[in-house]
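Chapter summary example.
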Amino acid sequence: MNAQVVPERSIGRTSVSTRADRDHDLLEALRRHEPLAAECLVSTYGERAYRLARRITGNGEDAEEVVQDAFWTVTRKIEMFRGESAFGSWLYRIVANAAYQKLRGRQGRRHELSLDEALPLFDERGCHAEPVADWSHAPTDPAVQAELRTTLTAAIEELPAAYRAVLALRDIEGRSNIEIAEALGLSIAVVKTRAHRARLFLRKRLNDFMTTTMVAAA
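The structure predicted for these 218 residues follows.
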């Protein structure tokens, strides 16, 4: 009979349920419109929401405005959260949508990079068509390490906004593919593809930097 039917989207829900439990008190405070609920929301999710907005917009000032707008939406429309996903995923979707809206409304928006033109080349077997630098003996000079971090940050900023959002949630926030799919309104397959392509691009940029650095050191 129907008693044994598995609830829709129940697979992989353990982590979602755990996060929902962690946010239970915050959710109840928001639903009761308690005076300190908004402050608790900011202290719990403020930094993470800002990092996501910053990654998408590429601008600190825009990111601050995005987070303010998103948190205003969360506090005013908390009744719209039905618990079908983790609260954090719902909040991230609001932040991401606000950030994308900010990008669309920005005049003189920058031309976004085409990853197809920037990714490393592969042969018919799926192997790198060009030599890949060996980083095992990478310089440990603090100045070089600082340049490496700067190169990585710049490479992330080069990524299209949609890829930066996935990368931020996956590799910086540590969210699962399921949570990212729910937060950004994507399929899991698209999340995996964007994360993979973003990492390939970053590796190519870092590879170019390390190759140049090692040649100069030699």
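To summarize the output: Residues 5 and 122 are 45 Å apart (CA to CA).
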